[in-house]
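In the current project phase, our protein records have gained a structure token line. A sample record follows, to show the layout:
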Amino acid sequence: MAYLVGAGLVPEGVAWSWAVGSLVLLLRYPKKSLSMLLQVPVTFAPFYYAQKLAPEAFWEAAIWAFLMLLLDGRCFLGVVVGFMVDAGLLASARRESRP
């Protein structure tokens, strides 16, 4: 978030609010899945701003991200499954598959 504030794309108050809110949530509910969920907007904000401000850079980044998923998709899927298990989204599916 600091690089977005430094570039003038996100107001300082929004960044501080996000940081404090995230800290409070993580101290209250210390789960890896919550931490990952709170990182999503900060991770994808540069793509959003690039699409608006520098479309060429956006397409380069989107192609690069797609290629990385193709090259290391198994790791990505492992992270997604880990997130879903930690969030309790796969618990019912595992119980149903047991005899």
